Amino acid sequence: MNINRNNYEIYFLDYLENRLTPDRKTQLMCFLDQNPDLKEEFEYFDNIQIPVDDSIHCEEKSKLKKPDIKSIGNIHAGNYEDLFIAKIEGDLEKKNSLKKKERKVVSLRSYYLINSVAALFLIFFSIYMLFIKKHSSSDMHLEARSTPYIMESLSVNELKTITDAKLLMPVQEQADFQVKMEPLPMEHGKPVNIMEKRYFKGKISVENKTAFDHIAFRFESTNEYFRKLYTDEPLLAEKKTRQRKSAIGRIFNNLFGKIKGKLKPGINEIDKLASAKFNIWSLAEAGINGYNMLTDNDFTLVRNMDAHGKTTSVKLVNNDEVLFRTKP
Amino acid sequence: MTPGEYNSCVDKHADGIYRFVLKNIRDKDTSMDIVQDTFEKLWNHISNVSINKGKSYLFTTAYHTMIDYIRKDKHNFRYDLARQSDLTSENGYSDLKDILDAALKMLPDVQRAVILLRDYEGYSYKEIGDITGLNESQVKVYIYRGRITLKNYIVSMDKVL
To answer: What is the gyration radius of the CA atoms in chain B, in angstroms?
Structure first.
């Protein structure tokens, strides 16, 4: 900012208080040379200071102060005056009267709200369990649990044919060999009696003696596999020999079957199995199912989650009509 | 700020604020009222003001309370009477301090306030600006013009004496 007739007073003051840089001082002197009238004012100006008048004191300073109340026990700045009055009136001896004044009022609204929701869930949950107990049978339960998973794999007969045929094939043709697939039983997410992949791998040539030993080894393994497969009991027969659980256990299996990891028909159940956990949402779902059974409604609790599995919104839907939602 | 720190502020700053207000409005009772109002406002906002900001808060509040009082009260009338009585003092001026004191009365309210804040309390121009609501350049201009007026008054009194 250059010095001019509108701001020269600031520079005069800064000069007298020695707060100008050398460049600014030079600039100021040039300005004064160009403005002789202001140079006269500059030379006249004196930085007069007003001395502090120590004789002036605030005489009523004590009136400005406030009592600094130190809290002792239940006596503090907020109630000491009440206690003074109580002492004067002789109420301090009546201990009960003082205790009444300190009684706190606590709202029980949230307490009742939580208990109401919990009770509602428990009622519906109980009704649902009773309903399941009445209508469930051991046959239905066993059928649901014992239905095997199906996956595509090589059939036993096909496997034997292929193995024999492939051994006689040239190496180049083995890669293009097409095999048929058929359903095979699975249990606990793994195929039952399925030959491991290593039986099909390898380049096999009958003309090579070293490789011939290797081929003989393959035949032995394959034969063991067939023997094991044929002597195994069928999967369903094996399931039937299992000891039956108690009625309550079956109810829980039906209710929380997927939570406990029991397999049900449908290939997608395996994917859900890993993420299924027992939490408040499963309890709420059970409660809503019980309510639907009682009232013949079709309420559904829809929960949206983000990529981290955190619940973003919840809504209660009845026949495409949203009855309740936490967020718009 | 705790009640103890508030009382400490009273001990430290009550005299300075009272002196600052009294030098501006020249009325002891009104000055005391303004000081009491100022400390009452501090007490009401005791939880929002830290001990470090106590002095600045007090002077800012006192300044604005004083300006409000000057604007709406008939202080100018009493001020003129006081000035007349000083000018016609039979005892005259005993020393430079009295002359300066009289010269101070001649200044406009804002110039007097900023000079007192600068000379009595040693505030920087920026701090004075924060208290009075002016910018730093305006504060410097007011102080410069105030000091010019003081110089003129002193020179004129020298000629009289």
So the answer is: 17
